[in-house]
Q: What sequence folds into this?
């Protein structure tokens, strides 16, 4: 009898300890490509998140909580991303999941997180439709591709006084959806579209298009495509001696764009998630200074996004714990309450549909380096 | 010794035997003709001798060496040249090139275009047409070209498959004169022919192939006198 | 001014198609086989040139070209011996052979992706961005390399086919493989030679293409347009392959501008269909191949 009692006591004690441990440690899954051709997105995002987490744990910003990041490699493969997510939810019992990096893997992960009712927060995914599915369990830190393109149009008009814009559009879903958002803003402002040409995703020789474009004599060119095509277009514009201010989508921040376009890439404009030094707030400056102190270089855009993802998460944990228990549901609700939070990339608000409002930096390539051209914050 | 000797040869396609049991002797320097109806297996025998078709059983000896298992390249290198049925001129090679390619197996000792002179002397018509494509020649010219091409390999043994087929009578005569002339230079010749009378005229010995087997053989003069040959192949009753 | 640049760039791209089309024709002549891996051979050449450049960045472009050609030629030799010739010896069905060549192309593309990565690679040499002005027209310097190489190729092939035993044998085998054997020609050796030459020309196309654009594992798609070019010029005709390539190149640049660039990729095949409707045997039919 006594023996049984003591056994029961031990059991109760271990249960209590386990309960206490799980209340203290928040397991957060983070899925992205850590290997393969798109590894840069996953590894740099993870690095930025870890950097922010270290600082948060050290400063005691998390109070009695502790965050444990559980990373897994998707290799950029949607199937593997979904698998990793399912495993984290089932065996690791994660509170929520961060990811994915590409839109395809993010969509695949949503198929897992949504029915499991686990909140998912993507640092990088851009596809506009991800937040148009009435899904209450997903939000993201990145602007949609459409927002990039729409803002680019506003930037071209306000900052560069574009009067006659020529659009070169990759003839697939991605390019066409960018072009729609871009064209909508251009037309809304009554600016002339000097021409709009769709090119095949596999196209390599753009000279026929470009000479037609040259004849239209636009004062601004927007290339809405991937770096493999924007690079060749900018290169061939150089070969033909066409010198017009050119927005090359997000390509200028991608090293291969400069390799492909060569010297003609000089002067090309682009947008990116985050650009170190573009944010004048205390939080913005602090991040760049801290990062430089540790790594002796500026953070990349993905490192910045990873860092901010963690800052947003820490804030959400604070909000959730202030409101009561941190649960899968309360953490989600806390994310949607994030408004004007000062982080490295400016002030961030999560919108009701899961999209984000935050500043967008526009940059220009000069001598192989990116320079801030304009920070669009509206 | 470059006599060609075939013993108990059997060959065919797939499971069908075209040659059942063929034995044949072609003494050095002589012309032996092989007669037979269509489908008797004459061309199959030529394909076997030139190495295009493997032997199923039996043996072929060239001057005492067994050549039964050799491929066409080795056989032509041993001095056995073939004038195939239907002449098989390369249509898009010039006459000159068609002749030259006959010397392919001895290309390392080939002395240049003057090697073609003997063929042009033998067949002056070919010289006139030296730069024309083989495919543009008339049947008779093609036959001369096929013989000339075979001679370019400097053969000791020549296998001729139906050289008179499809030719005008005057040309047939030329062809058989050519064969007689070649024979005088010491070349061993196996002549496969439908034109039995002319063939037996140039040959010293003859064989008659019937449904894959030799039904009759002997000296050419004896065969000419044989009533069975006269009836079946010479059109005499 | 624009028209001249268009025509020159069309002709240059046409030369690239022509080089790959030559490979199609060489192999078809020698083996009666349409090698759909030819575009991927071009890709391999482009990547091997890239690797040669990474190892020896100071090497002149011409050496890179030659190294890539030799390496790819060796590779073609092995493929022919290991994959194609055994299949032909077994008298494999035509549909099987087509699948075999397609399969080898897919294997090559995937191997290249594993080895060189999914991102395109750029030749980091001055030639990639070098523009020369001729008569006021800005032209990439590599245009002259491409046109020069094409000219040399035509001269070299012409000499090969008319002045050498090897070339004579190649022609003989393409017309009548059986009778060629009676002449002492080894058709297997001819197909090796044809495969090596086709692979070398494909590699050259890849290396010459690289400074104009970039090299990527999926660039074997160029092979389909080159195939259209070879068909236009009659599959098996050397001269036709070159002319077919130039026709496709010109039609793409000029046609692309006239009827809309969305259709640029379809033009090669539209021209091919048009030619086949008018002349089912292609423009330069001469191949009287005898079984």
A:
């Amino acid at each position: 009898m006594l023996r049984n009692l003591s056994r029961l006591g031990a059991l109760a004690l271990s249960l209590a300890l386990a309960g206490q441990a799980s209340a203290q440690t928040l397991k957060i899954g983070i899925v992205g490509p850590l290997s393969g051709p798109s590894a840069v997105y996953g590894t740099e995002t993870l690095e930025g998140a870890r950097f922010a987490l270290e600082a948060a744990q050290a400063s005691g910003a998390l109070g009695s909580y502790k965050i444990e990041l559980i990373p897994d490699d998707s290799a950029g493969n949607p199937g593997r991303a979904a698998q990793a997510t399912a495993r984290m939810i089932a065996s690791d019992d994660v509170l929520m999941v961060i990811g994915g990096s590409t839109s395809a893997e993010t969509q695949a992960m949503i198929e897992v997180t949504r029915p499991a009712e686990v909140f998912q927060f993507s640092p990088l995914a851009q596809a506009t439709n991800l937040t148009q599915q009435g899904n209450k369990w997903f939000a993201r830190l990145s602007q949609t591709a459409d927002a990039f393109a729409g803002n680019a149009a506003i930037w071209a008009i306000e900052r560069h006084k574009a009067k006659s814009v020529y659009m070169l559009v990759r003839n697939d879903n991605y390019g066409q959806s960018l072009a729609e958002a871009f064209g909508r803003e251009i037309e809304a402002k009554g600016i002339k579209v000097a021409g709009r040409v769709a090119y095949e995703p596999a196209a390599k020789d753009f000279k026929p298009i470009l000479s037609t474009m040259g004849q239209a004599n636009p004062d601004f060119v927007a290339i809405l495509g991937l770096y493999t095509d924007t690079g060749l277009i900018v290169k061939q514009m150089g070969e033909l001696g066409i010198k017009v201010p050119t927005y090359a989508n997000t390509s200028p921040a991608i090293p291969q764009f400069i390799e492909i376009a060569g010297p003609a890439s000089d002067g090309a404009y682009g947008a990116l998630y985050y650009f170190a030094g573009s944010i004048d707030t205390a939080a913005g400056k602090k991040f760049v200074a801290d990062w430089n102190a540790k790594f002796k270089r500026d953070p990349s855009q993905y490192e910045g996004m990873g860092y901010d993802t963690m800052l947003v998460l820490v804030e959400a944990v604070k909000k959730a714990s202030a409101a009561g228990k941190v649960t899968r549901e309360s953490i989600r609700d806390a994310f949607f309450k994030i408004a004007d939070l000062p982080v490295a990339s400016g002030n961030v608000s999560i919108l009701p549909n899961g999209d984000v409002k935050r500043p967008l930096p526009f940059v220009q390539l000069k001598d192989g380096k990116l320079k801030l051209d304009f920070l669009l914050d509206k | 010794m470059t006599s060609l000797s075939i013993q108990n040869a059997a060959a065919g396609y797939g499971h069908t035997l075209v040659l059942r049991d063929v034995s044949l002797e072609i003494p050095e320097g002589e012309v032996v003709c092989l007669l037979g109806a269509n489908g008797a297996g004459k061309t199959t025998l030529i394909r076997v001798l030139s190495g295009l078709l493997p032997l199923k059983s039996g043996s072929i000896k060239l001057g005492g060496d067994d050549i039964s298992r050799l491929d066409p390249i080795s056989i032509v290198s041993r001095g056995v040249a073939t004038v195939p049925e239907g002449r098989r001129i390369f249509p898009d090679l010039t006459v000159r090139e068609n002749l030259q390619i006959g010397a392919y197996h001895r290309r390392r000792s080939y002395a240049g275009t003057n090697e073609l002179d003997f063929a042009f002397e033998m067949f002056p018509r070919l010289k006139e047409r030296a730069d024309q494509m083989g495919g543009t020649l008339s049947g008779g010219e093609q036959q001369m070209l096929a013989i000339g091409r075979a001679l370019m390999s400097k053969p000791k043994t020549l296998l001729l498959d139906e050289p008179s087929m499809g030719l005008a009578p005057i040309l047939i005569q030329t062809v058989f004169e050519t064969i007689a002339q070649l024979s005088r230079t010491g070349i061993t010749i196996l002549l496969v022919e439908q034109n039995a009378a002319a063939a037996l005229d140039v040959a010293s010995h003859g064989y008659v192939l019937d449904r894959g087997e030799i039904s009759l053989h002997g000296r050419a003069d004896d065969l000419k006198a044989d009533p069975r040959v006269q009836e079946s192949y010479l059109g005499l009753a | 001014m624009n028209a001249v640049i268009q025509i020159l760039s069309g002709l240059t791209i046409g030369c690239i198609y022509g080089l790959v089309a030559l490979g199609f024709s060489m192999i078809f002549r020698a083996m009666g086989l349409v090698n759909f891996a030819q575009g991927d051979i071009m890709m391999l050449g482009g990547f091997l040139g890239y690797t040669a450049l990474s190892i020896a960045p100071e090497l002149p472009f011409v050496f890179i070209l030659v190294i890539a050609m030799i390496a790819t030629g060796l590779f073609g030799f092995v493929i022919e011996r290991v994959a194609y010739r055994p299949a032909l010896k077994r008298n494999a069905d035509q549909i099987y052979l087509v699948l075999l060549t397609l399969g080898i192309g897919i294997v090559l593309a995937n191997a290249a992706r594993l080895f060189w990565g999914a991102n395109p690679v750029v030749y980091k040499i001055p030639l990639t961005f070098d523009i020369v002005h001729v008569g006021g027209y800005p032209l990439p310097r590599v245009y002259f390399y491409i046109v020069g190489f094409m000219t040399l190729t035509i001269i070299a092939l012409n000499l090969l086919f008319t002045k050498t035993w090897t070339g004579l044998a190649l022609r003989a085998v393409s017309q009548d493989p059986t009778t060629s054997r009676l002449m002492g020609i080894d058709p297997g050796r001819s197909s090796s030679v044809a495969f090596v030459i086709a692979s070398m020309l494909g590699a050259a196309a890849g290396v010459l293409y690289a400074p104009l654009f970039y090299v990527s594992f999926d660039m074997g798609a160029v092979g389909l347009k080159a195939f259209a070019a070879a068909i236009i010029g009659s599959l098996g005709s050397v001269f036709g392959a070159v002319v077919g390539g130039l026709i496709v190149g010109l039609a793409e640049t000029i046609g692309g501008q006239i009827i809309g660039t969305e259709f640029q990729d379809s033009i090669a095949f539209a021209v091919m269909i048009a030619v086949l409707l008018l002349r089912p045997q292609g423009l330069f039919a001469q191949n009287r191949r005898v079984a």
The longest strand of chain A covers residues 25-32. Chain A has two domains: 24-143+281-359, 146-272. Chain A has twelve helices and 15 strands.
